[in-house]
Amino acid sequence: MKQRIITAIIAGALFIPFVIYGKVPFTLLVLAMAVVGFYEILKMKGISLFSVPGFLGLLTLILLVIPKDWSSEVVEAIGYSSTLMVVYGLMMLLLIYVVLVKNKITFDEVAFILLGAFYVGLGFHYLNETRNVGLEYVVYCLLVVWTTDSGAYFVGRKLGKNKLWPEISPKKTVEGFVGGIVIAVIFAIGMQAIYPFMNSYVSLIFVTIFASIIGQMGDLVESAIKRHFDVKDSGNILPGHGGILDRFDSLLFVVPLLHFLHLFGN
Fold first, then answer.
1. Angle at the Cα of 132 (from 135 to 219), degrees rounded to 5?
2. What is the model's pLDDT at position 263?
3. Which of 43, 59, 102, 156 has the greatest CB tally within 10 Å of its CB?
4. What share of the chain is helix, strand, coil (3-state, %, to 5)?
């Protein structure tokens, strides 16, 4: 526990200034975290980031993470009309590589690489997009995710009796799941009282409950991936907390869905 607290304080002290400042430094930090997260998910499958398939997947990830104006410039520079066309081209190269190496890398592994690039890439892309909408929105997302996580942990530890999904995450409980939502709503209301950023408290509560549920599902998804590959953590870059995916798994679900549902402005 002591190590977790120390790591959280140090990581927060390094991360928060980037969030506040935003702009290019925040975008580059998000890109760096996405690359580490992609490395972690490939490692679980036993695929090297420094292999040909790993490198092609990395290019796909970068195109998905970077802001739209950056990717548009890259796409135009190489003579294509859309990012989707370039991503499709990279997919074709991955499939051709399967043939060239005579199935030493399989279709399943190519699919895993591409799904990993989209899962990690779009999640971090929309983290950056959320910051571009406004500081208050990215603070809100981080607040909801972190308070849900903490609330679920402490409520589950004190009151948890009914297992939520023991086959995937044995320690999570129904009481913790509900407690995480309640704690997130309380903190969100506190933020709204200090700095009103949503139209009404009703909208705020609805969005917070939705985000808290989706965030916990994102956490369960990453737990399912780790259990499938029989690993405790996605990485060890954050002592006591695991890897980048361990800390951002919920956020990778929350920020894209809030944008897809147009709950944040453009």
1. 75
2. 66
3. 156
4. 75, 5, 20
Tokens standing for 174?
Answer: 């129904």
Q: How many CB atoms lie within 10 A of CB 107?
A: 11
* Average confidence score pLDDT of the chain: 92
The pTM (predicted TM-score) of the whole model is 0.92
Q: What percent of the chain has pLDDT over 70?
A: 97
Judge contact between 251 and 144, C-beta under 8 A: no
Overall average pLDDT of the 165-193 stretch: 95
Other beta carbons less than 10 A from residue 79's beta carbon: 8
- What is the per-residue burial (b if ≥16 Cβ within 10 Å, else e) of 23-40? eeebbebbbebbbbbbbb
d(CA 206, CA 89): 41
3-state secondary structure 48-95: CCCCHHHHHHHHHHHHHHCCHHHHHHHHHHCCCCCHHHHHHHHHHHHH
> Is the four-CA dihedral 126, 127, 129, 134 of positive or negative sign?
positive
The helix or strand, by DSSP H or E, that contains position 183, with its residue range, turns out to be helix 174-194
Write the pLDDT tens digit of every residue in 67-85: 988 888 888 888 777 888 9
